Amino acid sequence: MPPAEQRLWYFIRRKALGGFRFRRQHTIGPYIVDFACLEAKLVIELDGDQHALGDAPERDANRDAYLREQGFEVLRFWNNEVYDEINSVLEVILDAALNSVRAKQVEASQQ
Q1: What is the pTM of this model?
Q2: Cα-trace Rg, the chain
Q3: Is residue 1 part of a domain?
Q4: Is residue 105 part of a domain?
């Protein structure tokens, strides 16, 4: 695992973030995502500088579109955000997971 992924994994493994279970290097269709929370249908991708070069932004956009079609929300963070702003990153992840679960609960209660 690259260092940024190791750092984030330290904070989200073993249900440490809000009780949500995250998987690392999880396969969804033809893609392997950095982290996924299946309960919240949430994908987390960490990007280094190479994701800003060449056709990488287009490939990432296509990948994100596919994952969204499968019902996942995709959160992307730059590696430096994980190093410099870990509390903000964790807050965004937790908010997204909680909002997803709440939305599912509301949807289920309306059926």
Answers
A1: 0.90
A2: 14
A3: no
A4: no
